[in-house]
Specification:
28% strand, 7-stranded mixed beta sheet, Spore Coat Polysaccharide Biosynthesis Protein SpsA, Chain A, 30% helix, 7 helices, single chain
């Protein structure tokens, strides 16, 4: 990896409101919610640092001042990009591109995953793609069916294994030369979905498969599950 990626920066998306967590996020931003004994953002930084990643760009928005005050004490020379309250995910990344001049890891602020980031960057570089998304298998709890125009069943799959995007990616700043302003300014996650679809058409998206531990905290039930999984997977001396 020496000489390939000099900065080894990680862009962490921390601007969402976290509405599905209800009263938990009325006073604090979602990255400050605790999983285990530390906040989500602390767990992420700790794991990233172990892999040699110590340069962070935090895309803040909701309760941004609170998060900024907290992170200044936890990181050495953190960079902040404030997209305000209304910016979608893609717009937040776009606003932060001024701090990036090489392929950079993107991490959603509400996810924890034991990904080998050096390997991820290496595979991204080898693929020559503009964007690499991290995907993981998930077992659908339902039987999935398809039928034809006459209403005749043509396919039935019992609890199939599907692949889903887990909130981690590597992007090259050049992706924005392929995207128009309308796409960049789309709200919430619409812009990033549209961008991926447009880049797929140009054959510029690579998939990195991941089968390790991953935790997502979008709702109270997911927060409860995350804490259970966290305790199951890690000992006192082996935390994220």
């Amino acid at each position: 990896m020496k000489g390939i990626f000099k900065e080894k920066r990680i862009l962490i998306l921390c601007g969402g409101r976290g509405k599905r967590l209800g009263n938990i996020t009325k006073k604090i931003p979602k990255p400050l919610v605790k999983v285990g004994k530390k906040t989500i953002i602390e767990q992420k930084i700790k794991y990233y640092s172990k892999q040699g990643f110590k340069n962070y760009i935090f895309c803040i928005g909701y309760k941004g001042k609170i998060l900024k005050k907290f992170l200044i004490k936890k990181c050495k020379k953190p960079i902040f990009s404030d997209g305000g309250l209304k910016s979608g995910i893609l717009k937040r990344i776009y606003l932060a591109k001024q701090f990036i001049n090489e392929p950079t890891i993107i991490s959603y602020g509400d996810t924890l995953a034991k990904i080998n980031f050096n390997d991820l960057l290496k595979k991204h570089k080898k693929s020559k793609a503009a964007l690499t998304i991290v995907v993981a298998p998930i077992k659908n709890p339902f039987g999935i069916v398809n039928w034809n125009l006459k209403g005749k069943l043509i396919e039935f799959k019992e609890k199939p294994i599907l692949n889903h995007f887990i909130g981690y990616a590597v992007f090259d700043p050049k992706i924005f030369k392929y995207l128009n302003k309308k796409t960049i300014n789309m709200p919430d996650g619409q812009g990033i979905v549209q961008a991926i679809q447009q880049l797929i058409l140009r054959k510029l998206v690579y998939v990195y498969k991941f089968n390790g531990l991953q935790l997502t905290v979008n709702s109270k039930s997911e927060l409860k599950d995350a804490n259970i999984k966290f305790k199951e997977y890690f000992t006192f001396n082996d935390t994220l």
